[in-house]
Amino acid sequence: MRVSVLLAAALVLSTGCLGGGSGTARLSVTRVDDLPQSEGAVSYQNLAPDQQSAFRQALGGEPVTLREGTDRNEFRDPGYVRYDGEIYQTTIMIP
């Protein structure tokens, strides 16, 4: 059990999933009809300015490279954002 926890922590830290990791990541955004049961969505207004910018860019349908230091927690895989009366699923891709 202890080894599993340590391995999971090492994976999270190495991929930058706990905040502004220094690795490259790409954000994609897809509109969804319904929020899956037991999932919550963050309001667009609650995103940091750099997160809002990346989200708006990704709305065009093409994945957006997140700037180094951009907090990725709000976009965790999968994440959901409420924007302009719609719900969007966000996905982080780490090459």
From TrEMBL:
<dbReference type="InterPro" id="IPR058285">
    <property type="entry name" value="DUF7979"/>
</dbReference>
<dbReference type="Pfam" id="PF25934">
    <property type="entry name" value="DUF7979"/>
</dbReference>
<protein>
    <recommendedName>
        <fullName>DUF7979 domain-containing protein</fullName>
    </recommendedName>
</protein>
<feature type="domain" description="DUF7979">
    <location>
        <begin position="25"/>
        <end position="90"/>
    </location>
</feature>
